[in-house]
Amino acid sequence: MRHIVAISPHLDDAAFSVGGLLAARARAGDRVTIVTCFTGNVARPQGFALACQLDKGLDPQVDYMALRRKEDHAACAVIGAETIHLPFLEAPHRGYASAPELFAARRMDDGMLQPLTYALREVVDDLAPDLLLGPRAIGNHVDHWMVRDALAATGRTPMLWEDWPYLRRAGPTDDMPVVRHRLSDADRDARLAMCEAYESQLGFQFGGAAGLEALISGVIEERLYPV
After folding, report:
1. Are the C-beta atoms of 134 and 161 separated by less than 8 Å?
2. Taking the complete model, does pTM exceed 0.85, yes or no?
3. Using CA atoms, how far apart are residues 41 and 135, in angstroms rounded to an integer?
4. Are strands 179-182 and 221-226 parallel, antiparallel or unpaired?
């Protein structure tokens, strides 16, 4: 039995990007663990952080991150994956004040890299994965780059996935992947079931469950790249 560890920036990124691969490995008898970095709570979000909750159709009194963590447990249960939630704050709670800022340069006062690096080094040492996965940061979301850079700073050698659904907007990459995982029907069904568990994101990201299903039905493979 091999141990596959996926380091996900947010509570959905691993499933959205490599859910089929993770499902296939779990079905083959491997241990799968999804570690999500930015799952911390803010008691009373304000400004853009609150807007990121409201634009999902959620009441401001809803504990958004608690809801997201619950969705993540449900998604991981689809394939029997273990979950680890690190308590770091998403970019809107670290001073990024608009959607364009999420996809721009890292703020000079964003001190997340060092504590995240320390935490990931400890987690990866403890889990001792045979295969370590993380985001390639396609789409340039600042949190995805933070995770990619923190993984690099740990000295570990992950394989990097193509961030989805950002990949749909960014277009194909030019360099050749080391691993191409062609999705079977079972892989695609499991990826869809995992993604559907993130109910709070479906309307905002895909226009609803039907939109998600239509997009995933057209996904042929998931690709991994070396650092």
Report:
1. yes
2. yes
3. 23
4. antiparallel
